[in-house]
Amino acid sequence: MDATATAPHTPTSAPTPFSTLIRVASHAQHTEAETSTFMSDLLGGRLGVDAYTRYTEQLWFVYRALESASEALRDDPVAGPFIQPELARTAQLERDLAHLRGGADWREGLVPLPATAAYAARVEECARTWPGGFVAHHYTRYLGDLSGGQIIRDRAEKTWGFERKGDGVRFYVFEEITNPAAFKRGYRELLDAVAADDLEKQRIIDECKRAFDFNGAVFRELGEEFPLSA
Ligand code: HEM
């Protein structure tokens, strides 16, 4: 319109980093997840440990899908850089579930909610057929666990009396990540350097939104299973 568009202090428009695009694109859904009825009730201390257990069970199905693909994707140019052993959560979830579900038989009778089964199936499908989609699911879970996960751990310890960083909340404890803020910075650098063109990046963002939808659906089903008694 006028000269202001090319004024001396207008920075030449560097493209927005992918890590920023994906964060901004999922921001609204993140708020929805945080404020979902189930999460609010859980973190508000209004639900019993049975609800927390059921939630932890769902996580196990999702992380098993994410992490059983790790070996096959390690050398993949797109997904490979994201596979980092210090993130792995399956073993921690299994210790938590042994604590929450009465010991060595913790797997007995363990069934995913329908929304969880659909979520895990989609993760598996991406792992098999679309590394970019796998990155979307990887980001949505692990960067969240490194962030809000710490709030959930704190509330869980206080509400249900788990030992600090002990059995029941090991999922939230990343023993090998001593500086989560630095780790997240490094993770964002990986996102910014992802081997994908703009169209593929957009598809990854769309899949990230889908990942949030899956999480929302799991929360809805958990909310139905654990309604607050009026
Ligand atoms: C009550 C539940 C939750 C709380 C309190 C919470 C809290 C937070 C906080 C405080 C951050 C900011 C971290 C930072 O700026 O470095 C964050 C980031 C994030 N959360 Fe959550 N969160 C919750 C649920 C979820 C869920 C259900 C998901 C998806 C499964 C999720 C995915 C993410 C992701 C991907 C990020 C990283 C955003 C980025 O910097 O790129 N969060 N969360």
From TrEMBL:
<feature type="binding site">
    <location>
        <position position="188"/>
    </location>
    <ligand>
        <name>heme b</name>
    </ligand>
</feature>
<protein>
    <submittedName>
        <fullName>Biliverdin-producing heme oxygenase</fullName>
    </submittedName>
</protein>
<feature type="binding site" description="axial binding residue">
    <location>
        <position position="30"/>
    </location>
    <ligand>
        <name>heme b</name>
    </ligand>
</feature>
<dbReference type="GO" id="GO:0042167">
    <property type="term" value="P:heme catabolic process"/>
</dbReference>
<dbReference type="GO" id="GO:0006979">
    <property type="term" value="P:response to oxidative stress"/>
</dbReference>
<feature type="binding site">
    <location>
        <position position="139"/>
    </location>
    <ligand>
        <name>heme b</name>
    </ligand>
</feature>
<dbReference type="InterPro" id="IPR002051">
    <property type="entry name" value="Haem_Oase"/>
</dbReference>
<dbReference type="GO" id="GO:0046872">
    <property type="term" value="F:metal ion binding"/>
</dbReference>
<dbReference type="GO" id="GO:0004392">
    <property type="term" value="F:heme oxygenase (decyclizing) activity"/>
</dbReference>
<keyword id="KW-0479">Metal-binding</keyword>
<dbReference type="InterPro" id="IPR016053">
    <property type="entry name" value="Haem_Oase-like"/>
</dbReference>
<dbReference type="GO" id="GO:0006788">
    <property type="term" value="P:heme oxidation"/>
</dbReference>
<feature type="binding site">
    <location>
        <position position="23"/>
    </location>
    <ligand>
        <name>heme b</name>
    </ligand>
</feature>
<keyword id="KW-0408">Iron</keyword>
<dbReference type="InterPro" id="IPR016084">
    <property type="entry name" value="Haem_Oase-like_multi-hlx"/>
</dbReference>
<dbReference type="Pfam" id="PF01126">
    <property type="entry name" value="Heme_oxygenase"/>
</dbReference>
<dbReference type="GO" id="GO:0020037">
    <property type="term" value="F:heme binding"/>
</dbReference>
<keyword id="KW-0349">Heme</keyword>
